Amino acid sequence: MALAAPPPARVFAELVPARSPTPAPAPLVLARSPTPAPAPLGPLGREVHVSGSAELSAGPDRARVSVRLGSRKDAAGAARSSVSRRLEYIAQSARQRGVPEENMTVTEDFSRVENTYQMEAEVCIVFGDFGKMQNVCNLLIEKLGTSVTISPPHFYHTPEAVDNLRRQVCVAAVGNTRRKAQEVCHLFGQSLGKPLLIREEETREWGGHIDSHLPNSPDGLTLQERIQNATAHASCRVFAVFEIKGKGNRRTK
Question: Name one GO biological process term (predicted).
């Protein structure tokens, strides 16, 4: 079951003033003229602390369709031949539309029922292009009719797609956090410097299917509704500390 969407992102920021340690008492120096103190090196320790988040979604990148067929004949050869012809037509139709051979899996079962021979087969086809999937399924229904049974497509995500979503939502959260820090610095007339700390605090994922999950959507759903049900969502919250350069650190031309 999909979890409820997280609340809107909230960003917190604080400007940290320079940390000036309490100076130790200066030793007494007897000199004809006092040595001048060194010039300050700049506003060390000036930082802005920001929290930010992002949320992204990714539709499924794979769909699996199962095509089942069978034949029951008095002769074993006739039952095998009937199924073999249709299996070859299914495989050829998929190959002609760009489906790789390794994306098709065929299982066969041959048995004897009373005084007849029964041959059953199933072809599982994995599609990366949903348009090609629709074309292949429509063609098989048109040409083979009721002699085959085509299951509703099962949409899912590959591990690579899930990892990509995780990376994207983290990068988006960092980008949002940096933009907020820039706005805070601009508000006080300061210039944002380099990041001093970036920490991923929380990542949540919900929705979506993976390959090992069985399809659990009702048969009456449309194709777009199935894709929507299989869409994965992820959110990420990060905490970051940036240096504040200030106006005095800007180089003059």
Answer: positive regulation of canonical NF-kappaB signal transduction
Burial class (CB in 10 A: 0-12, 13-18, 19+), 12: exposed
204 and 148 fall within a common domain:
no
Residue-wise pLDDT for 219-243, tens only, equals 678 999 999 999 999 999 999 999 9
Residue finishing a domain among 137, 155, 173:
155
Q: Sign (positive/negative) of CA torsion 142, 133, 101, 118?
A: negative
What pairing do the DSSP bridges indicate for beta strands 154-156 and 192-207? unpaired
**Is residue 117 located within the same domain as residue 141?**
yes
Amino acid at 108: E
Question: What would the pLDDT profile of 179-225 be if each residue is shown by its tens digit?
Answer: 999 999 999 999 999 999 999 999 999 998 776 555 556 667 899 99
What CATH number does residue 51 fall under? Answer: 3.30.110.170
